[in-house]
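In the design runs reported in the main text, the only information available to the sequence generator was the tokenized backbone. The following block is the verbatim input for one such run; it is reproduced so that readers can re-run the procedure and compare outputs position by position.
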């Protein structure tokens, strides 16, 4: 479940970031869209059965 979650996030980010090999481009994109906060909220909403 963890691998699937992270793979999905990586795939979506990779398609949205123009320079896929530039670490700063990744950091800028993550900060610009507040992705860490969004991910935190998403993880808190996950229900395990």
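Verbatim output:
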């Amino acid at each position: 479940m963890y691998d699937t979650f992270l793979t999905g996030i990586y795939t979506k980010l990779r398609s949205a970031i123009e320079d896929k090999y530039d670490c700063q481009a990744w950091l800028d994109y993550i900060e610009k869209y507040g992705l860490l906060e969004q991910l935190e909220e998403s993880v808190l909403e996950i229900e395990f059965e």
